[in-house]
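Trying the structure run again after the queue cleared.
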Amino acid sequence: MSHIGPGPDERTNYRRKVILTICLILAVLLSVAASLYRWHNGVDAQNYAVRVMFSVTEDYVKTHQGAWPRSWEDLESVPIAGKWYEKSLDYKLVKQHVVIDFEASPEELAKQVPAEFHAIDAKNPVFDFARDPRLVGLLRTLASFHNDK
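Done. Tokens:
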């Protein structure tokens, strides 16, 4: 029969509990700090605004037979009734966070993969939108009008 030695003493258990408690407190504090940083710097608003513009621009492209918008006014003319972004679309806020290349060629954009696309981008990019389904949808819509079938 094997003999198992005595377990950790009370002092060792106490140290482990203190270290664990400190680690948990640090994890919570870092999480709160990260949230405050994101809120203070508008990261969430910026990411949301970019996603909304992917959808608005796709709607524009669909209703204008593949044409790319040439101004903010073009995008503001897109009907938003019944869209997922209807109640939250604020162009003043969007213009603060999003850059759109209104000179882009829809034919060239239609050839791009999501990782190459920068015709709609955040002013201070902190997120990779390459896998965003709204961007993928926009590129598919452009391709449906401009790529040879």
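The radius of gyration is 25 Å. Worth checking whether this holds up in the mutant runs.
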